[in-house]
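Researcher: Structure for this, please.
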Amino acid sequence: MLKEFKEFAMKGNMLDMAVGIVIGAAFSAIVSSMVDDIIMPPIGLILGNIDFSEIFIILKQGTPEGPYATVAAAKEAGAVTWNLGLFINALIKFVIVAFALFILVKGVNNLRRKEEAAPKEPPAPPQDIVLLQEIRDLLKK
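Model: Predicted structure, token format:
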């Protein structure tokens, strides 16, 4: 059983998948930083110094009752919040990741189409066919 597990774990596809997951996690961290630290601050500045991560609606007051300056303060007071800004950030992250994956898949598909469209040499005929063709040619002479 251990030998079978080792064969399974060492298959090329399994290793490729593990590498893909690690790279995906790193890519996700980069996208999160890009959205939170690069994209959203200028958008918030343009819209009047709004911090999108702190846009929320209070559904139920906590103790003590609000207004609360931050989502963290509202949660600490036990308030139930609807975190619209965090959802907008997550939506932007999703769109960026989905677009990057679209570009990747499109590139791979283009490479596959080029490989399929490339002219292929016909397979060499079997040796007995070659021999019979030579005999036929000799008999014609």
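Researcher: Any notable elements?
Model: Residues 31 and 93 are 6 Å apart (CA to CA). Residues 2-140 form a domain with the Non-ribosomal Peptide Synthetase Peptidyl Carrier Protein; Chain A fold (CATH 1.10.1200.120).
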